[in-house]
Amino acid sequence: LYGTTETLNVGGNLENGEVTYTVVDDTGSADLKDGNVLVPKTAGQIYVDVYIAETENYEAYQNTFTVTILRASEELSLENTEVVYGDELELEVQGSEESYQATYEILDGGTGSADIQDGKLIPGHVGSVRVKVTVAATNTHEESVFTEVITILPRPVVLDWAVGEYTYDKTEHKPVAKV
After folding, report:
1. 28 phi and psi, to 5 degrees?
2. Residue 105 · residue 175 · CB < 8 Å
3. CB of 71 within 8 A of CB of 92?
4. Is 85 helix (H, G, I), strand (E, B) or coil?
5. The model scores a pTM over 0.70
6. In angstroms, what is the C-alpha Rg of the chain?
7. What is the pLDDT of residue 166?
8. Of 22, 27, 56, 136, which has the fewest Cβ atoms less than 10 A away?
9. Is residue 16 exposed (0-12), middle (13-18) or buried (19+ Cβ within 10 Å)?
């Protein structure tokens, strides 16, 4: 499994002949650390050649084993799940150390509405929307599909008064807006 290491061991080496491992990449790739720890680099198929040196009572042994490195899964989510009506929300996936290709789709069942254009959520009405996110598989990770609820918050009302201070009844007054 990508993201894990595996210590290679040979059974049946009764006289403890020296063991040597070699990795040959195919559709996947891996390195050897400390001579016997398999460290996957990409998912796919590799070959591990095992050579056990001759001992006093046993002849040398050599064999090749096929190893399949599986893609790992990831816990992914959207970085932001709130947006104010009138603003756009850049849809960004978090939890992946790799670059990824993601697609987004609005699902039924929310109380608000929105559209998605060029990876941005554009609110239509205040409420919540359900977004299906599909992150394509990479050389190391499986495809990931998850759903997030994005809350579209009302835009705060801001009144901008053009009137400053004024004086009447011999007192300075400042108008205050009430909503």
Report:
1. -115, 180
2. no
3. no
4. coil
5. yes
6. 31
7. 62
8. 56
9. exposed
Say how many Å lie between the first and final Cα of the chain, rounded: 59
> Tokens representing 94?
């978090």
Alpha helices in 2-146 (DSSP H): none
Beta bridge partners of 46: 25, 67
- Whole-angstrom distance, CA of residue 149 vs CA of residue 91: 12
Check: CB of residue 25 under 8 Å from CB of residue 46: yes
Site of tokens 């080496």: 13
Distance CA 163, CA 103 (A): 49
Give me the numbers of helices (H) and strands (E) for the chain, helices first please.
0, 17
For the chain, what is the largest distance between any 2 Cα atoms, rounded to a whole number of angstroms?
Answer: 117
Query: With the C-alpha atoms ordered 104, 146, 94, 88, is the resulting torsion angle positive or negative?
Result: positive
| Side chain identity, residue 131 | V
The answer to whether 72 and 142 are in contact (CB under 8 A) is yes
The low-confidence residues of the chain, meaning pLDDT below 50, are none
Q: What is the pLDDT of residue 169?
A: 78
Could you read off the pLDDT of 103-134 as tens digits, one per residue? 999 999 999 999 999 999 999 999 999 999 99
CB–CB of 93/78 below 8 Å? yes
